[in-house]
Amino acid sequence: MTDITQALAEIVGEGYVSDQPEEAYFYARDPGLMPAHEPDYVVVPKTAEEIQKVVRLANRDKIPIVPMGAGMALTGLVIPLKGGIVIDMKRMTGILAINEKARLVIVEGGISQGLLKAYLEKNYPKLRHSIPDSPATATIAANVMIHGQGRLSQQYGFNSDMVAGLEVVLPSGEICKIGSCSISPDWFSKGAPMPDLSGLFLGWFGATGIITKVALKLYPKKKMRDVEIFITDMEEIVPDIVHELTYTEMVEDITVFAQPLPMIFRDNHHITIFFTGDTDTELEFKRKMVWDALDRFIKSKDGGFMGVPPVMKPTLLDSPQRSVTRFADVKKGGGFEYSGPIILVEKYPECSRKIRELAEKYDLGYSGMARIIGRGHCMMYGFAFTFNRADPDMMERTRKALHEVSEYALEAGGVFWKPTVNEQKMALDKMDPNTRNLMGMIKKNIDPNGIMNPGNWEVN
Amino acid sequence: MDKENCLGWLKGGKMYALNFDENLCTTCPTGDCLVKCQYMDVEKDTAVEEMVKISRGEDSFVFKDCVTCYGCEEYCKRGNHPFYLITERREEKGILTSPRAITKQWINIGEPQGKYRLGKVKEKVLSFGFMPEFLKWVRGRLFEDVMPSFIFGQEFFCNVVYIHFANTSIIKERLPMVVDNFKKLGVKEVVFIHDECYGAFAHLAPAYGIKVPFKSIHYFEYLYKRLQELKDEIRPLNIKVAYQRPCSSRLSSDKHHFVADIMELIGVDLVEREYQGENALCCGGIFSMCFGYDLANDVQKRNIDDMAANGAEYCVFNCPACQSTLGEKVAKRGIKPVHMIDICRMAIGEK
Ligand SMILES: Cc1cc2nc3c(=O)[nH]c(=O)nc-3n(C[C@H](O)[C@H](O)[C@H](O)COP(=O)(O)OP(=O)(O)OC[C@H]3O[C@@H](n4cnc5c(N)ncnc54)[C@H](O)[C@@H]3O)c2cc1C
Ligand code: SF4
Ligand code: SF4
Q1: Which domain holds residue A12?
Q2: DSSP states along A361-430
Q3: Looking at this predicted complex, what is its ipTM?
Q4: How far is the centre of ligand 2, averaged over its atoms, from the C-alpha of A76 (Å)?
């Protein structure tokens, strides 16, 4: 055992540290396409204080640190590009406090989406959080760290907009409170009415600190939920359809997808519309509002509601929606990656044409899928390709296609979501120089030794 | 046949033509096709005039108002095919009934993909068309004399549904191939478990002069005979049911009486209600896809209110698509949805 391993073992306990090749192998990669790189150590801490000690040790010896949730971001963000210590957050799964009336919950930095969902369903059936469609093991902290989007994003914005406070271990080792909780015992705001310091951490991929607690806003959970799918063969009118739908204020979530397989989905764009209600009357009222909003497209024959058979509904209403995960295995061999720029909804037709063009050029299976964010303020457009891991040629073609997506996304006015290191560089290159300098100053001052998730958001 | 009134198409060198005789209309004493239409308010003279106009390829308000319920195929008792004619003309004129996306989706779903399933096919075979529900529902003693002789898949899908979408060209393209697929299996008698498939081979194919090289049997007739054979095992169900008549049943109105016959045999009280027989209302599935919320909702509401007002405890479905559309809605009104096969199985103690 090396001195560092020994020191880490003293902090987290021997069973929760490893420098062995088996662990190094697993923690070297994520399920996406980025090349693997092994860490030197893996630790699985239980408390913020243990993290604090690990960070201090790393800072002293200038050892890189990479915080990790479930490793599901897919874009290599948890791959320890410069070795060092991976801090696996999976043991920090506590639900520390819940305020039912204020609809707020405080959780630890490693709790999974699935665990919080199950807890709420059991104990607070009238509360819910904005769950993303990632596998249920994905963590809350990482999801807000990467500005994820979930079931409630159409109504309330990015999942990170729903943060109501943070506790962060800084690269220097201090434990720092962000938001109302820095002054008050109550965690209800991540910034307002004070300067919003959460921006020093959210979106930084752990390059400025490790989240050990998150206060999250919760929202009403109605007893019933239903879904309708509006289809059109005209990509040009998808933004208008979304505009009409968001105007109704009746809709929970809106996603759009277009893919050539299975046959039922060929040739059309599918606007999936979710809505909720406590009674049949409420649900039916909302359904009618939604149908009425799109009636002009039915009359012009440019679109219509497909019949959603009852057998299809459980799959669609599943939350997280497992069909996304199933799509990942279309080509068998379990390869799936998407590049999902955040972009204006009006760019949907362009994005849709681009994914078809790339799929054809590189001979790949694809799905174009969009999630509407905040009443149509923007969307995440996922350029998703599936590949077979046992087929290196197909993987290479996918890489090339995704690279073209990145170039296209920037050109089209989009901003990368959970960008790969390469995309981060592209974004920094394109960024307003003063903004880039500001980011550089922040990073340099917060993490002067550059130990936090090095390679990410490096402004040079 | 009068060339003017002959709508034909050439497929594999063969001309199929819709049998429509304009003279039958000009001499028609009733104009029943449109007079009885539940979605238009038309007098006899106008009805006749419009059908003649349609036959001559002229414009008609019918193209706009017809909601594709299939009803006039039954209302016309003079052997004409008003609905097929309306459909043909709409297609010729490019008048859409359904949004293009819906039509494309359905055409894609029905495209043969080599994924059909065959049981141990004998000279007599059950056809499930392309309704996966039947793979689960068709079992038990009612079917034991034919099963496991069955076929299922797009290759055996009648494609009739596309007349809702004013798209007969796809039917013309596919139906002869489907007939061919049956032919290749060498079957002599086909019991169609989906009513619409029966309509295709017993009604639509002859209307277009397509030769069908086997005997078509409606599953109602088959069930009725089987139940008679199993008469000793029937326990009268003593329940009140409403029957949801599907659009396709208008293509086999001569078999409609079997609903009442079967219900009597299994001790079920088929409630008398306003929307039954010729006056039956569509489940609303196609209406919502093609025309939107209001029409579908109005028809569904009237229909279900009528079932409830007449004390129905169960709603018996013939078509799985109707059941899928209306099942949950009737259940919410306390009326249990059940397929015809299942209610027959209940009567012999299998459910
Ligand atoms: C099939 C599928 C569907 C998906 N659907 C969605 C979706 O609908 N919406 C969506 O938003 N995402 C989606 N994703 C992407 C992703 O899985 C999620 O965003 C997920 O929440 C990421 O969480 P994670 O724990 O796996 O993050 P990880 O990959 O472990 O980490 C992501 C980033 O956060 C950093 N990090 C992790 N924990 C901490 C911490 N405590 N403090 C500081 N930094 C930390 C990591 O270093 C890394 O940079 C999907 C992924 C898949 C595979
Ligand atoms: S279609 Fe039939 S009912 Fe209608 S006018 Fe002609 S003959 Fe009469
Ligand atoms: S199909 Fe139905 S709606 Fe259309 S004209 Fe015939 S009866 Fe009327």
Answers
A1: 3-88
A2: HHT-EEEEEEEEETTTTEEEEEEEEEEETT-HHHHHHHHHHHHHHHHHHHHTT-B-SS--HHHHHHHHHH
A3: 0.92
A4: 70
